[in-house]
Amino acid sequence: MKIRQNLLTIVCVLMLLLAAGCSAPEEQSEQKENTPAPAPTQDPTATPEPTKAPEPTAEPEVKEDPAAVVLEMIARANAEDYAGAAELVADDMMAYFIGLPPTGMEIYWGKEQFETFLVECCTGQHFEWEVGPMTGKDHLVFAEAKTWMDFTRELGVAPNTWTEVYEVQDGLITLYTSTITEEALAKFRPALSAVMPEAFAVPPPSDEPPVSEITVTLANNTCSVDGSMNLKAGELTVNVDVQDKDWDKYAVTLFTLDDGKDMLDLMASTPGGPPEWTDMVFNKEFVTGDSETFKGTTVEEGPLYLICWAGTPDTPIGNAGPFYAMP
Fold first, then answer.
1. How confident is the model at residue 57 (pLDDT cuts 50, 70, 90)?
2. What ranges do the domains of the chain cover?
3. pLDDT tens for each residue of 186-225
């Protein structure tokens, strides 16, 4: 419509100019004929350029608030809306609960397993989940958390405290790790062992002959070990096969621990650097597709413990042990 109006306006102006030229005196006309006409700056008969509509202004990108997603998920869990809490996690979400008996590692894959965990853990327990100060970096949220439930209230150890890490992508939680703090484990262990001693039973060495080689396979966001848990004291060969593709880097570590420490202590210590009561006898980093063999690791008598790691920051994704080194 604007273009048509502009054309009509130009036509009207041209008609007025033409009429004025026709009614001018002849002297004026003759003078004009003797006066050179200036070069036209624009052809009055040319079709004008159509008026362009202004470019639409792009709406500013709305950045997600990872901390808000985490807080909403926790609010739904506290309201016993476990299905609603699970709606805020991705279909392929990974959840790692670290430092709890009997193995020090529980893993849940995806939305359905996460909802099942909440239902089985919290239903009828008057569960409360509180997150303290939160810090963020890119898509990551780091937090200290406290939880209360009837079971831990009865044991006299509530609240339990945790170090938690969340990764949020496109408004959904894709990674969740919750590690019991060393202080909470120190309270929880004796109280729980008094009513569930089997949760802390350490398997003795098996009757299998000791071996000098193990294979560690990283796949499906965790790791597994092929080979006997009895190792020959001396030189150990470690084969590592990284089949997993979901992380930017991986690592495998073998530890020996001071007397009185075990897998639960080791896993509870993973948010910080290796504590002074550990000794790393093997530590290698990898990327997807690596398949390598390492010789020269020396093991002595006593138990060894293995942790597999992935991503940045380092996330424990699996463990194994104790391995028993034998003469």
1. low
2. 66-197, 213-326
3. 999 999 999 999 999 888 898 999 999 999 999 999 999 9
Distance (Å, rounded) from C-alpha 129 to C-alpha 148?
Answer: 7
Find the radius of gyration of the CA atoms of the chain: 36
Q: Which residues have C-beta within 8 Å of that of residue 173, sequence separation ≥ 6?
A: 69, 70, 73, 88, 89, 90, 93, 166, 167
CA distance 316 to 199: 21
298 strand-pairing partners: 235
User: Which one of 3.40.1350, 3.90.660, 2.40.128, 2.60.40 gives the CATH number of domain 213-326?
Assistant: 2.60.40
- The C-alpha angle with vertex 217 and arms to 235 and 205, in degrees rounded to 5, equals 55
Alpha helices in 23-109 (DSSP H): 26-34, 66-78, 82-86
| pTM exceeds cut of 0.90 | no
Whether residue 148 contacts residue 158, with contact meaning beta carbons closer than 8 Å, is answered with: yes
The strands making up 105-109's β-sheet, listed across from edge to edge, are 105-109, 89-98, 172-180, 160-169, 140-148, 128-137
Closest Cα partner for 254 from 246, 245, 263?
263
Which single residue is written with the structure tokens 């849940």?
A: 108
Query: Which residue from 321, 311, 96 is spatially nearest to 216, judged by alpha carbons?
Result: 321
8 Å CB contact between 167 and 73:
no
Residue 292 to residue 216: CA distance in whole angstroms = 10
* pLDDT, tens only, 87-120: 999 999 999 999 999 999 999 999 999 999 999 9
Q: Where are the alpha helices (DSSP H) in 157-220?
A: 182-195
Same topology for domains 66-197 and 213-326, yes or no? no
- Second-level CATH architecture of 66-197: Roll (3.10)
pLDDT digits (tens, 9 = 90+) for 66-86: 999 999 999 999 999 999 999
Distance of CA 109 to the CA centre of its chain: 13
- Which tokens belong to 211? 């071996």
Confidence of residue 139 (pLDDT cuts 50, 70, 90): very high
